[in-house]
Design goal:
The chain is mostly beta strands. It has one helix at 62-70, and strands at 6-14, 21-22, 32-33, 36-37, 55-56, 78-79, 97-98, 101-102, 109-111, 117-124. The two termini are 19 Å apart.
């Protein structure tokens, strides 16, 4: 069985995030997967592509550090703003190109500056079987 293509609307989860987020893919490449824009390894821009994950619980996030210090050492999660300076790390050998970038597969991961690892929970592509 083939692996579904990651596309706009995919559900993502950060290891330090409080809730799942969504992958936003701009239709710049004009390639659709199941009716939604297909994602590439380059679709990793904070907020533009990677939606926030509710509250950040990373002890290395400067905003969490400041809030915890203000509460006299009581750990205080703060709103998540992903910090993803590098593209996705492929989960396998990238074999499909969309535009000039390799397609994003469901095994790929993305690293946040605050130590979180972002993974694809649900790739977004759905198949409908017609009897």
């Amino acid at each position: 069985m083939s692996i579904p293509q990651v596309c706009a609307g995919a559900t993502l989860q950060c290891s330090f995030g409080g809730a799942p987020g969504v992958l936003n893919v701009l239709p710049a490449n004009r390639v659709l997967a199941g009716g939604a824009p297909a994602a590439t390894l380059a679709d990793s821009a904070p907020v533009v592509n990677i939606a926030p994950f509710a509250l950040c619980q990373s002890p290395s996030n400067p905003v969490v550090i400041a809030a915890t210090a203000a509460k006299l050492g009581v750990f205080t999660p703060m709103p998540c703003v992903p910090a993803t300076p590098a593209p996705w790390i492929p989960g396998g050998a990238p074999t499909v190109l969309i535009g000039a970038a390799p397609a994003l597969d469901a095994q790929s991961t993305l690293t946040c500056l605050w130590g979180g690892v972002i993974k694809v929970v649900q790739p977004g592509q759905v198949s409908v079987l017609i009897p």
